[in-house]
Design brief:
The protein is α/β, with parallel strands linked by helices and 315 residues long. It is 44% helix and 15% strand. Bound molecules: 2-amino-3-ketobutyric acid. It holds the Pfam family Epimerase.
Length: 315
C-alpha cells in the first residue's frame, strides 16, 4: 500500500490524478498539496496541505508528518508561461524539483515527476523522435525539463532514489483546464466547439504535436510507478503518446459530432515558435517494452468521449 504526497494537486494533472490515486490507494493515503486552497474536491476528499514548493523545509515537514513513501511532484510552470517569465520559471521549476528530490532522498521514498515533449528542440529528429536522441531545447521550459530528467537520473544513480518519469505530450482533459502551455489549444478547441461551434487557433494549420487523453496519462503514471524496477532502463524520461495531430485533424474529428464547427486561425508567434521547436511525433516503444505502456484512446475515441462529457458539463 502506498502513501503518496502530491504537489501541484489543483493543476490540470493533479486534480484528476488525486481522485484516481484516492480511489486506488485509499483517500487517507494521498496527501494533496498546492500553493492555493479552493473548494475543489481534491481539497475536500482527503488530506490537503498548503505548500509553496520553493519552501523545502515545509515540504519535508509535511512528507515526514504523513510518513509518505512516494512523492509525485507536479507543480511547475508550463512552456508559454515559462517563456514569458524565464527566471521565475527557473525558480519554481528547478527549486521546486530539487526540494522534492531532496525529500525523496531524505525520507527514502519513491519519486515521480513528469518531463515533456518540450525536452526536445529544433535539432532533435522531428518524426518518430527516438527515446534517446539529441536534446538541445531552445525554451526555458525545455531546459528545465532536460535538467529535471538528468537530476532525476542523478538522484537514482548517486543516492539510490527510486525516481521515475514520463515525457508527456499535450494532455487533453475536460475537468481542469491547463494554463500557460503551448498545447492548450487542443483543450480550448473542444470547449469552444461545444460552447460556440467555432474556435480561433493560435497554433497554425499543419503544426503536428503529440497529444494524449487524460485517463491514459493517469494510467501511465500509476503503471510506471507500479512497474518492476529491474525492467526499467529509461527511468526518468519515457516517451509516451497516443496521437500526433494538428488543429485540422482535431477539427475534422469534432465535425463528426458538431458538423457546423468552424476553425480559423490567429497564430501567436511565441507559442507557434515553441511548437515548431518540438517534435511532430515521438516513438513510445521503450515505454511499451519496459513496462507495457498502452493507451485506450485515439483521436476518434477521445473526441467522442470529451464532447459527450463537455455537453453534460457546459450545456
Ligand atoms: C505545454 O504545452 O507546455 C505542456 C507540455 C507539452 O509540456 N502541455
Amino acid at each position: 500500500m502506498k502513501k503518496i504526497l502530491v504537489t501541484g494537486a489543483l493543476g490540470q494533472i493533479g486534480s484528476e490524478l488525486i481522485q484516481k490515486l484516492r480511489d486506488t490507494y485509499g483517500e487517507d493515503n494521498v496527501v494533496a498539496t498546492d500553493i492555493r486552497e479552493t473548494e475543489a474536491d481534491v481539497v475536500k476528499s482527503g488530506p490537503f496541505e498548503l505548500l509553496d514548493v520553493t519552501d523545502g523545509k515545509r515540504m519535508y515537514e509535511i512528507a515526514k508528518s504523513y510518513q509518505v513513501d512516494s512523492v509525485i511532484h507536479l507543480a511547475a510552470l508550463l512552456s508559454a508561461t515559462a517563456e514569458a517569465k524565464p527566471l521565475f520559471a527557473w525558480k519554481i521549476n528547478m527549486d521546486g524539483l530539487l526540494n522534492a528530490l531532496e525529500v525523496a532522498r531524505e525520507l527514502k521514498t519513491q519519486f515521480f515527476t513528469p518531463s515533456s515533449i518540450g525536452a526536445f528542440g529544433p535539432t532533435t529528429p522531428k518524426d518518430l523522435t527516438p527515446q534517446n536522441t539529441i536534446q538541445r531545447p531552445t525554451t526555458m521550459y525545455g531546459i528545465n525539463k532536460v535538467t529535471g530528467e538528468l537530476l532525476s537520473d542523478y538522484y537514482h544513480q548517486k543516492f539510490g532514489v527510486d525516481t521515475r518519469g514520463l515525457r508527456f505530450p499535450g494532455l487533453i482533459s475536460y475537468v481542469t483546464p491547463p494554463g500557460g502551455g503551448t498545447t492548450d489549444y487542443a483543450v480550448e478547441i473542444y470547449y469552444d466547439a461545444v460552447k460556440k461551434g467555432e474556435y480561433t487557433s493560435y497554433i497554425a494549420k499543419g503544426t503536428f504535436m503529440d497529444m494524449m487523453y487524460m485517463p491514459d496519462a493517469l494510467n501511465a503514471i500509476i503503471d510506471l510507478m507500479e512497474a518492476d524496477a529491474s525492467k526499467l532502463k529509461h527511468r526518468n524520461s519515457f516517451n509516451v503518446t497516443a496521437m500526433s495531430v494538428d488543429p485540422e485533424a482535431i477539427a475534422k474529428a469534432i465535425r463528426k459530432y458538431i458538423p457546423h464547427f468552424k476553425l480559423d486561425y490567429q497564430v501567436d508567434p511565441i507559442r507557434q515558435s515553441i511548437a515548431d521547436s518540438w517534435p511532430n511525433s515521438i516513438d513510445a516503444s521503450s515505454a511499451k517494452e519496459e513496462w507495457g505502456f498502452k493507451v485506450a484512446y485515439d483521436l476518434e475515441k477521445m473526441t467522442e468521449d470529451i464532447i459527450k462529457k463537455l455537453k453534460d458539463k457546459l450545456l
